[in-house]
Amino acid sequence: MLFGITVIICFLSSALLKKTKFIGFLALMVFAFLAGDANPSTTLDYQVYMNHYNLLGWETSPFEKGYTLLSSAVSHAGYTYAQFRMFFAVLALLILFMGLCLFTDKIALFAGLYGCTVFFNDATQIRNLMMISLVVLGAGLLAKEKYVFKILGVAVLLLSTQFHDLGFVFAVIIIPLSFLNMESIQRLYKYWIIGLYLLGAVFAFSSNMSIVQLFATLLTKFSSRSNSAENVLTNFGRGNSLSTIIMMWMTLFLLSILITELTRACLRTNVDREKVKILYIGSAISMVVAFFIVLAPDYSRISRNAFVFVLILLCVTLEQKTIVFLTKQNLARLLLLVGVITLTTYINIQIWGPSFAESLPYLAQLKK
Questions:
Q1: Average pLDDT of 92-109?
Q2: Using a CB cutoff of 8 Å and minimum separation of 24, what contacts does 198-201 make?
Q3: Distance of alpha carbon 193 from alpha carbon 257, whole angstroms
Q4: Kindly report the CA angle at 240 between 236 and 246, in degrees rounded to 5?
Q5: Burial class of residue 146 (count of CB atoms within 10 Å of its CB; 0-12, 13-18, 19+)
Q6: What is the pLDDT of residues 199-241, one digit of tens each?
Q7: Whole-angstrom Cα distance, residue 29 to residue 362?
């Protein structure tokens, strides 16, 4: 009930009020409670995290240094894993709120959409939740004019890699591209998409082990996680079914159209171009999966994380419009938006399998 009421309030307040930071903040804290108070017996990965937490000091942690250091500090203070998880979830969503505030006032709309789409994936993979929260904050700081904020933004993006290796994907793309102008990035984007789809098509019907070996080598050198290379070789190079690849390609194609439409709409208004540029880059990272999805279904988490930027870009776009008339063009955009949200949510549930789908009512605390 709490989850459902929270989402309804988010959407209603977004329709009636222009600024919804406080309501959005409360909604994110509800999500933090749900993620922190997850049921140990029905939440995937809960037992894994808890077992490693209880073995801190007795084993070499398989997780990144940032997560390991923070969990060790809380463990040494005498707190249980359940208490640490609640603290970690609240901290992550506080950081996410801070990052969102650098982009938009429509925090409640973001919270409602996030809750209905990819929140439960992040509530399950708690390290990923912290990583994407830090990425959003770092990206928001990079969008500021003063160099001191940009330096802080780079530092925060690099910090995200200490909680999940996927932070590297965002750091190595967002940081260098943030120094280019919007026109150059838009030109690159066209070649980026074509190249990634062509690579994906080639590797879908040929061996991909050389690419996987390369990723494993790079992670061995740069990752703070002790078993990153082994994890890539075992879980991120096992191939994928053709049906999943095609479904992801279709979703990404529609997502690309949506990103382009939202960006154009923003650029026609007085929105800070630097802000739009950073959101455009963050959203465009989704397209990386057009190639990576042929290596393993696990790479879908890249587009899932980048989808957070798409939601922020949507909020920034709607923030500029007090009234939206239902013309044929806007109806087509609405159908596109609904289609992308539905497909993104579905594919992230489908790839994670029936066990994850069965855990959703428990994560939302609709079932005990």
A1: 96
A2: 199/290, 199/291, 200/245, 200/249, 200/290, 200/291, 200/292, 200/293, 200/294
A3: 11
A4: 130
A5: exposed
A6: 777 666 655 555 555 555 555 555 555 555 455 445 444 556 7
A7: 18
83, with CB counted inside 10 A (0-12, 13-18, 19+), is middle
Burial of 12 (0-12, 13-18, 19+ CB in 10 A): middle
Structure tokens at 222: 């740069």
**How confident is the model over 10-50, as pLDDT tens digits?**
999 998 888 899 999 999 999 999 999 999 999 988 999 99
Residues 6+ apart with CB under 8 A from 312: 100, 103, 104, 110, 136, 279, 282
Residue 100: which of 7, 20, 181 has the closest Cα?
20
Q: CA 310, CA 286: separation in Å to the nearest integer?
A: 9
Q: Which residue has the tokens 């428990």?
A: 362
Residues 6+ positions from 75 with CB-CB distance below 8 Å: 53, 56, 57, 84
Q: What are the tokens at 128?
A: 């990923």
Which tokens belong to 12?
């209603």
Q: Which of 201, 241, 247 is nearest to 339 (CA)?
A: 247
Phi and psi at 224, nearest 5°, equal -90, 5
Cα 256 versus chain centre, distance: 16
Please tell me what DSSP assigns to residue 272.
Answer: -
